[in-house]
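Regression report. Comparing outputs from two consecutive submissions.

Submission 1:
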Amino acid sequence: MRSVNHSTPATTGTGHRVALAGTPDGLEQLGTLVTAALDAVSAAAAERTGPLPAGGPDAAIAAVRDLVRDGGFLTDAPGPHRVEELFEAYAGWAADLTHPAAVSRMQCAPTPAAAAAELLAAVLNQSLHSWESGPFALELERRLIAEMADWVGYGETASGTLTPGGSISNLMGLLLSRDHVLGGLTGDDISHTGLAGRAIRPRILCSTAAHFSVARAAGFLGLGRDAVVRVPADERGRMIPEEARRLLDGFAPDEVPIALVATAGTTDHGSFDPLPELAALAAERRIWFHVDAAYGIGALFSDTLRPLFDGLAEADSIAFDLHKFGWTPASSSILLVRDRARMSPLGQQAVYLNPPDDEAEGYTALLGTSLQTTRRADAFKIAASLLALGREGMGEWVDACHSQARYAAARITRDPDLELLAEPILSTVVFRCRAGAAIEDESTWNAAVRRHLMAEGKALLARTKVRRQDGQAQVHLKLVFLNPATTTQDIDALLDDVVAAAAEVRQSPKARTPQTAH
């Protein structure tokens, strides 16, 4: 226990003394600032009439300009009053993720336990690149990864890491697939020798509904976005295994499939690719099987939805986010790998961080499991949320969001002004406003309805484009339910606001002008 603290608060040019957060003086200052921050959140919630203030982009830009004023962030008059002004502006203009009309993104409000853990993690500022930089944090992540591996049906040989987001988790999964498959084919360590000069064309297969991060990862890995082969999907965005087999059969001799990527929870429909069939195909062709479950992971906690994950344990790697359907602050993304030996391309020995003799004595770091060196203790906030909710609580919250989506779909079906695209699978609902004869460009009109709701601060909806049976790609609106406290009355009020906004936009001259919404 610390008995003496030798640190001295630094004094600014204005005489204000700033201490480091972990010192006695710093903790006192922190307590005052935390109270101010919570007061700012409470005040913003009391003043807000929707999930966002009205005014749109111009008002948000003006709010930042008013905060910074002359002198910029390196102000000549620093101090707690300026920090409190920052808190007030930030809270006032933050999207309120607890508001029932905030249904635009896969972005959940966190549990109080996770938020408190995030604060403590920031105060103590542990890192995972060397043992002494965060001993408990490091061992906590190891234990959490082991438990998560058990969730998905992996055995004791599994490993993994926390990452800054699902896109990075997918990137890392494909990095491991590249090095494993091509290393086995060539006998080389691809992470050392690289790909230059090889007479092969690596290929990654994913569905037409897969996340854009798959193609972007291929570009980052030196394979090129053109290395991604899009497999046709059915009307709900699920990969068709027979089409994947057909494409594989048509590859030229120099085309080498290195990964088959399945999606478990597409961003629009929440659809799951047929995991058992795709796992069997990947095993037959000796292709790395990666599952992107960034959104769909919530189904794993639900007794009702868990069967959607049949076949998951056969994946070579799995990416998922608990900042989407897990009520932890971003970033809380995870990559799991069925065989820890296949994480060897990430291995790194640095004499000043993880020297071999230290490692031999148990002072082991996590430097060799990540693309990052300095890395936050994100497992801490995840552990806090899990310990606060438990498996049953997580399952109840997932089921509540699923029920909300089903109710919203039924309500949309009954409304003559709205059209449902399909029944929800997880917690997303895709629909559109019916335009009628007065609207020449239905896509532009639906996009304008969404912006109108945002500008007024009444509702935050997502948008997407869907190719309909007539072959035309049209803008649709999307609701993403991640707040288990939302009621059926909240949903009715939200959809009433959508219908009212559609009527208001219909009267606008812009709504009658043919345009193209992308």
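Submission 2:
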Amino acid sequence: MANIHVPVLRGLGGFRADWLRSDIPAGLSIAAVGLPSAIAYPAIAGLPPETGIYASIVAPIAYALFGPSRLLVVGPDAATMAVLAAAMAAIIAAQPAGAPVDPVVIASALALGVGAFYFAARLLRLGVLASFLSRPILVGFFAGVSISILVGQIGRFTGVRIESEGLLQPVAEILRKSASIHWPSLLLGLAMFALLWIVKAARLPVPGPVIVVVVSVLLSAIFNFEGAGINIVGDIPTGLPSFSLYAFFQMPMDRIVLGSAAVFLVSFGAGIVAARSFAARTGEEVDANQELIGLGAANIAPGLFGSFPVSVSDSRTAINLSTGGRSQVAGLVSAITLMAALVFLHSALRILPIPALAAILAAAAISLIDVPELRKIWRISRMEFVFALIAMFGAISFGVLNGVIVAISATLVYLLHKTMFPRDTLLGRIAGRDGFYDMQRFAQARGVPGIAICLVQGNLLFYNADYVRTRLRAVIASLPEDTRWFILDASAIAHIDSTGAAALDVLQADLAARGISFGVAHLNAECTALLERAEVVGHIGAEKLFDDTEDALRAAGRQGGEQPLAEVSDEGSLRGGTLTGQGGRDGQNAH
């Protein structure tokens, strides 16, 4: 923790004046694409539209100063906003009855909390947290979040106030209130949603959200949508974001901490997945620990300027790459452009119709459902697909905030499942070759007469020790009567705990009762020390712990008066295909 490098101005490293020819157009494009989402996304959390513009101004500036990447662009993100909305709802619910509630203050406190989690994670070098939520579980979680966002747009499309929450309740409520639907609002929203898909299908050079904003503002000005009863954005402050510190101590800090942790996990998990996918295209290296600093600063800044948490923005980064951005100057240009828009386009932004923003949010939510990736997961691993569905239905059924807990729990269950049932296999020789081979995989492999060599491919810990002991007992029970040595190849066992040590102690006792010598090969120093402390080494015999399998065979040959190292013939040798566990793989010393 003492050697922490703060990547100040790394995103501007090596900047050359001729890069401005690329960075300025890229920055203008980022602002054009970012403005619609900056206005629309705050609605997910019930925040005023200017907070999104503020976040899109101060966060890129902070990341340009402290972020390590030259090309990533930060900003409002639909998934992060959905988790933020759930966290804010929990905090508001914890406020005393009648107490004043300012959503902006709560969002700012959460942004500071998220930034603090980023910095704490960097101090503890927890960049590995980026891999904690697996890709399948993230894909499933985002699909659930997208459905939640879609349901949340019902009121904005129809002009009807929806008071219920969840998945089915809002649908049932709009059906009950169908007589109150404002049909001009619904038709406008559906038309703008269709326009987004037409632009996408036609692959026009101008992004769909930009076209929707321009068209809907023009229509609003021509046909006076406000007078027609269609909800509009309304007045937006014309000033630039100002520094402010609110009385955060008056809020329930336990809810702030828990909410910040949930937003941090999703923000960082999604942000690093996006960063790595873009880095694969550009050849940049992604250092998750350094990104913690850049993203931490990008969240602290909105918290100090009356806004909300952010993450890596897929759409803005994609525009930056496609338009040839070369450095974080593009992000600075986009921030300056949005400042100008806030000052000079106030009147136009004011009459932007809410159904058009609902269309943008609905399209963004649908884009979170990665159907091709779900199909790929189904094709590769049905089990991982099941966990993706668990994460998806967790976000839908229990709410987005609880969905984070479900996703994390699913990750833990998945990890446990992958390690609870380690594979085991018997190893043998192949005539004319060196080394040892998996006898299930290689039909020509033959066991050494009188000796069984068993490879366990996994750790031996409290949650799988009983399974491993049962499997090895089954293997031992199936050995030929003339077997005099059982050698455990521990090359794939990295960790053993006290429960695992007890399982090995029982195993050696079972072997001793059958008159079979028990040897262990390739046991690492840490595991050896633990077995010594558990007195298992004393029961096995220190002389039966071998550096490698060849040493074990030599010892067995000396004891039996034979030379098991000689070439193994195909006749009369031990075959172990029926003794393997779950289709074992090769170990470090097996092929």
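Expected: both submissions complete independently.
Actual: both completed, but the second showed a warning that disappeared on reload.
Relevant detail on submission 2: The mean pLDDT is 87.
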